[in-house]
Design a protein that fits this description.
The protein is α/β, with parallel strands linked by helices and about 375 residues long. It has a single domain, classed as HAD superfamily/HAD-like (Rossmann fold, 3-Layer(aba) Sandwich). Helices cover about 35% and strands about 15% of the residues. It contains 12 helices and 9 strands. The strands form 2 sheets. A 7-stranded mixed sheet has the order 5-4-3-1-6-7-8, sandwiched between helices. Strands 2-9 form a two-stranded antiparallel sheet. Helix 3 packs across helix 5 and helix 4 crosses helix 5. It is globular, with a radius of gyration of 25 Å. The N and C termini lie far apart (about 95 Å). The relative contact order is 0.15.
Length: about 375
């Protein structure tokens, strides 16, 4: 048998070490193991109480030796969308802007009078500061149901994405579809790597949320939102139990609102669709407190809730005084508070800057129809 000389053997070992195939490379008895560098998740954050609390919580509940250990199948985290990890101040919610455009500016669509009225109320609010009517969330939801009725799901997805590709009002260097809070995306990555399943639980239309979050890898079955009733294109007036779906059919939106997913409705929908009580909850407004309280009432596992406050009036459009008041309120409620101004090194990323809002002079108004 042919043997390898010691010089050749050392040469081969050196090559293997250089390729990274060996964890330890040494020609003496004091070999040192080179451990891989720990992944740094929060490069876009400043040191802060909320981040410390999140990491301490996750390290505790993912440690098998801890009394608070949670199995992966029970590591459920819920996130509101608008104002929690997607911008909502351009100059209002994406879905409000979209309805305003649909009813007042889209030349291909002739809106019913009540939908036009709702859209005009949004326009008066964002341009003139006129307060929205009481219970406007429901009025908007009903108007939106009508505005997109008859669209197939594919057509609606295309419509939402086309609007999302427009420059975000009040910013340079960013479209609506790019307006994610970059530090919050690092939270998603961190939790995913730690075995958590993350759900988006939003007051916005479920299919709007799906269209916007697709680009950051949120699976559509992890999105819960406002819902309208769907029908198949050949169903007619038949109920679903009487009609058999054909291979050539599509699904279309109707004008029948099923649920506006806010406050306690978020809890009901989480229970219906997830079937487990979350252990982590992230939000930014009073519409999320029910979801937070549901998580904090988890009878089986340690839980935590986080509220983000829009207190940065330099890099974003914000009412700092109101945000700080809310921050105090959320702390008293037992939630950890995330400050956009103090805790985020960046909000939307490099190259994005806040500007004044722009309103086209030639946009249609209610009186011009």
């Amino acid at each position: 048998m042919k043997t390898i000389s010691s010089k050749k053997l050392l040469f081969i070992l050196a090559l293997l070490c250089g390729s990274g195939m060996f964890v330890s490379c040494s020609n003496d008895d004091d070999a040192t193991t080179v451990a891989p560098a720990a992944k740094e998740y929060f490069t876009l954050w400043n040191p802060c109480e909320a981040l410390t609390a999140l990491k301490e919580y996750v390290e505790d509940v993912t440690n098998p030796a801890s009394a608070n250990f949670i199995k992966e199948e029970d590591r459920i985290a819920t996130f509101d969308m608008d104002g929690t990890f997607v911008g909502e101040l351009y100059p209002t919610y994406f879905e409000y802007n979209l309805l305003e455009y649909r009813a007042l500016d889209d030349a291909t669509y002739e809106a019913p009078a009540d939908v036009m009225e709702t859209a005009q109320e949004i326009r008066d609010f964002v341009r003139n500061g006129k307060p929205l009517p009481a219970h406007f969330d429901m009025k908007h939801a009903q108007g939106a149901a009508k505005a997109y009725a008859g669209m197939t799901l594919a057509e609606f997805d295309t419509y939402v994405k086309a609007y999302a590709a427009q420059p975000a009002n009040g910013f340079t260097g960013m479209t609506y579809g790019e307006s994610f809070y970059k530090p919050m995306l690092q939270v998603f990555e961190y939790l995913k790597d730690k075995g958590f399943t993350c759900y988006v639980v939003s007051g916005s239309d479920r299919f709007i949320c799906r269209a916007l979050t697709e680009r950051i890898g949120i699976e559509p079955n992890r999105v819960i939102g406002m819902d309208v009733k769907l029908r198949s294109t050949s169903q007619g007036t038949e109920e679903g139990v009487d009609h058999t779906f054909g291979r050539e059919e599509d699904l279309v939106r109707t004008d029948e609102l099923i649920i506006k997913n806010l406050k306690t409705n978020k809890v009901l929908q989480i229970s219906q669709e997830i079937g487990k009580v979350p252990v982590l909850s992230f939000g930014n407004s009073g519409g999320d407190t029910s979801m937070h309280n549901y998580a904090l009432s988890n009878p089986l596992h340690r839980s935590a809730a986080f509220m983000l406050i829009a207190d940065d009036d330099v890099r974003d459009h914000a009412n700092r005084e109101k945000a700080l008041t809310l921050g105090d309120q959320w702390r008293r409620a037992g939630y950890h508070v995330i400050s956009m101004r103090d805790d985020f090194r960046t909000i939307y990323g490099d190259g994005v800057a806040k500007t004044d809002f722009a309103f086209p002079a030639n946009a249609k108004t209610l009186t011009e129809w």
